[in-house]
Design goal:
Number of strands of chain B: 16
Largest sheet of chain A: 7 strands, antiparallel
Shape of chain B: elongated
Largest interface: A-B, 31 and 27 residues
Number of strands of chain A: 7
Structural class of chain A: alpha+beta
Largest sheet of chain B: 7 strands, mixed
Helix content of chain A: 40-55%
Strand content of chain B: 15-25%
Radius of gyration of chain A: 17 Å
Order of helices and strands of chain B: EEHEEHHHHEEEEEHHEHEEHEEHHEE
Oligomer: heterodimer
Chain lengths: 209, 395
């Protein structure tokens, strides 16, 4: 797995921050509340490293919204929020929520739509800047430990799991006066990661020239 | 376009009619639009929920058929899906303007919907988009009812908590206001009884004795009310330490000995469980033992023993206090550990009971993660017992 150099990392962070800006605008419009989303940092890790890092960060179950993407880059993207925070998170967007300790079906759909908008914005900004086409599937809501979610979203058979590479984006959701930590995780095969390096270098070359 | 396949010697199937049927007979609404939002496919479900026939819908622009969608989130989401190839989910939480769908048999009930927007790619690179509409009216209504019930429950809980706080404050205030003058009354009666103002006539002494005894009962009642209030509101502090059960039992017997002598009853401690510790608040546990012993003494027949036992059962320590008094009728047992739940009002008066002692015992034992109960048969005495987890000294 070739690591991202600092120029590539900065470039990619900027791309995702632009994508998050678009997602925040769309969501602010839908929800009627001022929303800001930023990507303070990202990392390229092996799947196992990502699992242990997420397990270290979130000690418990996670709520996730995942979708697959297709094009020059293939893989899955998952937005992850600690399950206990997901209630508070969704209820900032959804008025008239029910004070239960689990998400209702209505709230699960709402969280799925928030994830769908956020992840589509990321993918769209990547596609725009790379001048490529990236399509995506419908979002799926899931709950589990980081390990289970990332294994489920792996493209590989169990024996090839170690060939997966994970692009881990730390994101901050600012909803009114609240800030929520979340992660967006791109699970890709090593071949797609090589393509990502190539597309990123092309982009940096174009922007540099 | 028509598909067919052949498997071994099976006949060739025409897949297109099957796909048509799957599309048309689905249990959700399905619409396919082209890049300019012209309707290409419109299934039976859509016919039923819109009363717009397929022949009428197909060929029309979705925004011509439903002008209210123009510029709305759903319109933009379809356009974005067609342009970027990314699927979209529209949940009912954020999408108030959706397709005007009505239940086939309830024409005035607007259908709540989840819409999945899925771009379709074709070999010719033409862009189409599938809109899958799921009717979620029933689950939204269920959640709405649940929300109403939850809100009502929250409001009732709030009212109950407020009333409970008022009651608690009132009880504490009245208790303290009564206790202060009562202490002074008891002290004055004690002085009179002690002859501070000189020798009193026999009749006066007898009246003072009645007044003093009733004042002391009233004082005990007030203290018990304040005590149970403190435990129930979590304001009583418990100091848990490891204590050998033998110490608790011996000490409580020493304290109850004068009362036992007064009633002509023997206190018999059977060999206590040796080297058994409990994690307990010593004073509270003494209060429990004092209550159980004084009840047993008051109900025991003269000359008979009140027996105190302790034994270990797994991780639990059981302590029992048994008398051979009148016993407790079955019908009284459910209320026995509730405040003012003692057997008989006339009996209470005779034996000085006020109906709070057992409720306090229960509250204290529960604070020790234990349980308290009674076994009794009318006319054959009663055995009150409690169980609390044992503490492994030195662990």
């Amino acid at each position: 797995m070739a690591a991202l150099n600092s120029i590539q990392k900065n470039g990619l962070t900027k791309v995702f921050n632009l994508g998050m800006g678009c997602a925040a605008n769309s969501m602010s419009e839908i929800v009627g509340t001022g929303i800001k989303i930023t990507v303070p940092y990202l990392e390229l890790l092996s799947r196992q490293e990502a699992v242990s890092q997420l397990a270290h960060l979130f000690n418990g179950q996670l709520s996730g919204v995942s979708q697959d993407f297709f094009g020059p880059l293939n893989g899955s993207v998952v937005m992850l929020i600690p399950k206990d925070k997901s209630l508070e998170f969704v209820r900032l967007f959804v008025r008239d929520s029910i004070p239960l300790d689990t998400l209702t079906e209505f709230e699960e759909e709402a969280l799925s739509e928030v994830g769908n908008i956020t992840m589509n914005a990321c993918l769209s900004k990547l596609a725009d800047l790379f001048e490529e086409e990236l399509s995506s599937s419908l979002p799926i809501y899931m709950v589990g430990a980081s390990k289970d979610i990332l294994v489920k979203k792996s493209l590989q058979s169990m024996s090839e799991l170690n060939q997966d590479v994970v692009l881990l984006l730390h994101i901050d959701f600012y909803v009114g006066s609240y800030v929520f930590d979340a992660y967006i995780v791109f699970v890709m095969h090593v071949i797609s990661v090589k393509e990502l390096h190539k597309l990123l270098d092309n982009l940096l070359e174009r922007k540099g020239s | 376009m028509s598909f067919s396949f052949k498997s071994n010697s099976e006949p060739v199937y025409e897949v297109k009619p099957l796909l048509n049927e799957v599309f048309n007979e689905g249990t959700s609404g399905q619409i396919v639009v082209d890049v300019s939002l012209h309707i290409v496919l419109w299934n039976n479900w859509m016919e039923n929920y819109t009363s717009v026939k397929r022949e009428v819908a197909i060929g029309q622009q979705l925004t011509d058929l439903y002008p209210q969608l123009e510029g709305q989130h759903i319109h933009r989401a379809i356009q974005a899906a067609l342009q970027t190839g990314k699927a979209r989910l529209l949940s009912p939480a954020f999408n108030k303007v959706t397709l005007p769908l009505f239940k086939p048999h309830e024409k005035d009930l607007l259908v709540e919907q989840i819409i999945h927007i899925k771009p379709l790619s074709t070999p010719g690179k033409e862009c189409f988009c599938l809109l899958q509409v799921t009717d979620v009216t029933a689950s939204i209504q269920r959640e709405k009812m649940l929300r109403e019930v939850a809100s009502e429950a929250a409001s009732l809980r709030q009212t109950a908590e407020h009333i409970s706080e008022l009651k608690s404050g009132f009880v504490t205030m009245v208790g303290h206001e009564l206790r202060t003058p009562l202490t002074s009354i008891i002290a004055s009666l004690g002085l009179l009884d002690g002859g501070v103002v000189g020798e009193l006539p026999e009749k006066a002494r007898s009246l003072i004795a009645v007044a003093k005894s009733n004042s002391e009962r009233l004082s005990t009642l007030i203290n018990d009310i304040l005590d149970i209030e403190k435990i129930e509101t979590g304001k009583r502090e418990f100091c848990f330490t490891a204590i050998p059960i033998e110490d608790v039992l011996r000490r409580s017997i020493e304290i109850s000995q004068p009362l036992a002598e007064k009633y002509g009853v023997k206190l018999v401690l059977e060999p206590a469980a040796e080297n058994v510790c409990i994690l307990a608040d010593f004073d509270s546990l003494m209060q429990v033992m004092d209550n159980l012993l004084s009840n047993a003494i008051k109900y025991e027949q003269v000359g008979q023993p009140v027996i105190i036992t302790s034994h270990v059962d797994g991780n639990l320590l059981s302590v029992s206090v048994t008398d051979s008094g009148p016993g407790i009728p079955e019908s009284f047992r459910p209320n026995l550990f509730r405040p003012f739940g003692q057997v008989d009002c006339s009996d209470q008066r005779k034996n000085g009971g006020i109906g709070l002692g057992l409720a306090i015992c229960k509250a204290i034992i529960e604070e020790h993660n234990g349980m308290i109960d009674v076994e009794s048969e009318e006319g054959k005495g009663a055995c009150f017992f409690f169980q609390i987890p044992r503490y492994h000294c030195g662990v």
